[in-house]
Structure formats: C-alpha cells, structure tokens
Design brief:
NADH-ubiquinone oxidoreductase chain 4; mitochondrion; 0% strand; NADH_UbQ_OxRdtase
Length: 448
C-alpha cells in the first residue's frame, strides 16, 4: 500500500496546476483513506473489532470499504464539468460525502437493523446524483425505477428483521442461528440483494439508471452499489445452509441462463453506456452463481470478481464519458474511428476491455477461474452456460472496441479536443490497481 501511495504522489507531480486544483479534494480523500488503512488493519476474524454496532471488519468488509473510498475519490476526478461548468460543486461534494458515509457504515455494521438502515440510505444520494446531474429528461423515469425496485423488495427484509428480533432476540451477525430452515425468511431476506446485485429478471432498473446517470453516478453504481447486493448475500447465505440443495440451484440456473441472454443483448446495443451496463449484469450473474454454490472457491471468487468488476466497469464508464464529451453522443454508429484521433485513449480502451473479457494479468481472470471452478464442482451441467458467457464476454468487448476505434470518422465532428492529463490520470488509477493486485491474490482468501 505504501508503494501505491508513492505511485499516486508521483502521478500527481506530473499534473498541470489546473488539474492539481481539481485534485485538491481528491488529496483530502486519499489522506483519510491512508489514515484509515494504517490505523484500522483488517482481521481474519469478524469479532476482532466489535465496537457497539459497527466495526465488524474482516477482509470482506475491509476490501469493499477501500473500494468505496477509491471509487468515490475517482468520481471527483472524473466530474470536472461539475467543478468548472456548473455551480453546484459544494452540493456534489456533500452528496458524495453522505454516500460514502452510508457505504462505510453498511459494510462495517454488525447490527442487522443498522445494516438495513444504511443499506437503504445509500440509495438517496445515488438518486440525487441521477436526477440532479443527469443529461436527459428520462432521468426521472430511471430514478423512479431505481427507487421502487429497491424499496419494494426491501420491505420484506425489514419484516424479517422484526421477526428475528421477536423470535430469536438477536440482531447481531455474530449470534445469528446458522441453520434457519424457513423458506419465507430465505426469500424475504435475500430478495433485496437479488435486486441490488442484480439477478436476471430483476435487472431492468440497472440499464436505465446507468444510461441516464452522469459519469459519477455510473461509476458509483457499477463500482460500489452493485457490490452491496453481493456483500449482503455473502453475509446472509451462511444462515441458510439447509437450502443449498433446492432453492440455491434454482437461483444458480437463473443467473447462468440470464448471463447468456444478457450477453446476447449486449451484441445488439448501439449505446456504449447501455452495453457496459448490460455487461455488468452478466458479470454479476457469475458472482451470484458463485455465492449460491456456498463453497470456498465460490466465495473467494465472488469477492475477487466484485473488486475487479468495480474497477474495470467504472473505468469503462469513464472512457464512454470521455468520448461523449467530445462527440456529444453515446452511439456506436457516431463514435467511430477514434484510433486516428486519440491513439492514447485507444490504448486505454484496449487495456480495460481486455480486463473486462478476463484476459491476464487482470484480477477478472482469477475471479472467473475461481467462480467457474466453484460452479462446475457444484454441477457439471453449468459448464455449458459458463462456456457461452466466457465466449460472449470476449465477443461484446471486441465489438465495443472495434466499433469505437475503427471505421471512418463521423462527418459531423467539426471541433475536437485531445485528451488531457486529468483523463489519463483517472484511467491509470482504474487500470493499475486492477492489474497490480494480481501479484497478491493470497490476500483475498483469508476471510472465509
């Protein structure tokens, strides 16, 4: 981590003074980030830091909290238009701070009610980001989709929490009964996580929210908000071991079959942000399938894949926004031939899309290997779906790269400006952790 901090300081020294002003808030975030890193180290046992309702920091919580800090810092760096064009930078920072606080408490809470409360509170700053800084009038519809999908499915979980309190007199993760044998508790508790991750059939809110959100909203949705669903499942699935043979396999089949269908949908997309959003559904379907197997490979792979997808997908949304700021369109039919104009950004597209299709040495590769191992050991028939998902992942990644970088330039692109240091810095801070953590994979298997 000291090496990463030094790399960051060196990259800051290469920036222009104007970009350094933009990075002033980012430096404050990172100082807090590193102070948190060195003062509160994680433990492989959940009960080591058990202070009141919070600070249940094992490796699962710790890594997702660090991911939240990293993505929120990069959101400030990506949102230059908020700083220099609009006059709402203070409101933007306030919303971002509230979002980060809610994520921190959600990931570190040991109390079920506090976890549920801040799980829902994190929805409000995201909704403000979409409605306040979105680009099109359809952002209101996207906000309604996001709000009501989550709220409708979270009500059963609140009822479940009241039921557990009434019958078991417990609200702590540490003292929960590890063999809850009630199907309705299983469904009511996990349905909100299936929506958040999202599971196929419950995913329609995600492409709408991504397409209408500003770049900061897309980054936090792809980077952290989807991980709330995965984190909840990883925490709660250990309570329902008796359902491993019947209900879990149904969810596994839906997630794998949905991953294949969503991969096919990606091939028909003309909107870059929509394509990246649907690819998130496919990748998080693999995470959901790995969690449903409830074996060590599946749980390790789910954590690895969540971190890798958070960095990779967030970087792809930044790239799509960089092209949008130049051509004022997200259509693949209008954004063509950028290899001739921006060869440096073309390299960034190639590096992040190769990570998206799980090419070495990215973290996505080891995540997919672990998840594929876990699902094949659970059922050998899953190999059919996994082969199609892996193949189509490469297909739509190459489709996005070839359509955006090759071909003749759109004739309506009369004015154009090249890439700036801030954008290359932003993309480097997405790609570098994604590939450097490949060297320390043993850090991610201590929490199970």
């Amino acid at each position: 981590m000291f090496f990463l901090m030094m790399m960051y300081i060196l990259s800051l020294m290469m920036l222009t003074p104007l970009v350094f002003l933009v990075n002033f808030w980012l430096i404050q975030w990172l100082l807090f980030f590193f102070s948190f890193l060195f003062l509160l180290n994680y433990s492989s046992y959940l009960h080591t830091y058990n202070i009141a309702y919070f600070m249940g920091l094992d490796l699962l919580s710790f890594s997702l909290i660090l991911l939240s800090y990293w993505i929120c810092s990069l959101m400030i760096l990506a949102s230059s238009k908020v700083y220099w064009v609009l006059n709402y930078n203070n409101l933007f920072l306030l919303v971002l701070t509230l979002l980060l606080m809610s994520l921190f408490i959600t990931f570190s809470s040991l109390n079920l009610f506090m976890f549920y409360l801040f799980f829902e509170i994190s929805l409000i700053p995201t909704l403000i980001l979409i409605i306040g800084w979105g680009y099109q009038p359809e952002r209101l519809e996207a906000g309604v989709y996001l709000l009501f999908y989550t709220l409708f499915m979270s009500l059963p979980m609140m009822i479940t929490i009241f039921y557990l309190t009434e019958n078991f007199y417990v609200l702590s993760f540490l003292f929960m009964d590890k063999n809850l044998s009630y199907a309705y508790i299983y469904i009511c508790t996990n349905m909100v996580f299936f929506v958040k991750i999202p599971m196929f059939f419950l995913h329609l809110w995600l492409p709408k929210a991504h397409v209408e959100a500003p770049v900061s909203g897309s980054m936090i949705l792809a980077g952290v908000m989807l991980k709330l669903g995965g984190y909840g499942l990883l925490r709660f699935m250990s309570l329902f071991k008796l359902f491993m043979g019947n209900l879990n396999i149904g969810i596994l089949v839906i997630s794998l079959f949905g991953g294949v269908l969503v991969s096919l949908i990606c091939l028909r997309q003309s909107d870059m942000k929509s394509l990246i959003a649907y690819s998130s559904v496919s990748h998080m379907g693999l995470v959901l399938g790995g969690v449903m197997t409830l074996n060590s490979w599946g749980l390790w792979g789910a954590l690895l894949m969540m971190i890798a997808h958070g960095l990779c997908s967030s970087g792809l949304f930044c790239l799509a926004n960089i092209l949008y700021e130049r051509s004022h369109s997200r259509s693949l039919y209008l954004n063509k031939g950028f290899l001739n104009l921006l060869p440096n950004l073309s390299l960034c597209w190639f590096l992040l899309l190769s990570s998206n299709m799980a090419a070495p040495p990215s973290l996505n590769l080891m995540g997919e290997i672990m998840l594929i191992n876990s699902m094949i050991s659970f059922s050998s028939m899953s190999m059919i779906f996994l082969a199609f998902i892996s193949f189509f992942s490469a297909v739509y990644s190459l489709f996005l790269y070839s359509y955006s970088q090759h071909g003749s330039l759109f004739s309506g692109l009369y004015t154009f400006f090249s890439g700036v240091n801030r954008e290359y810095h932003l993309l480097f801070l997405h790609w570098f952790p994604l590939n450097i953590m490949f060297l320390k994979l043993e850090l991610f298997i201590y929490w199970v």
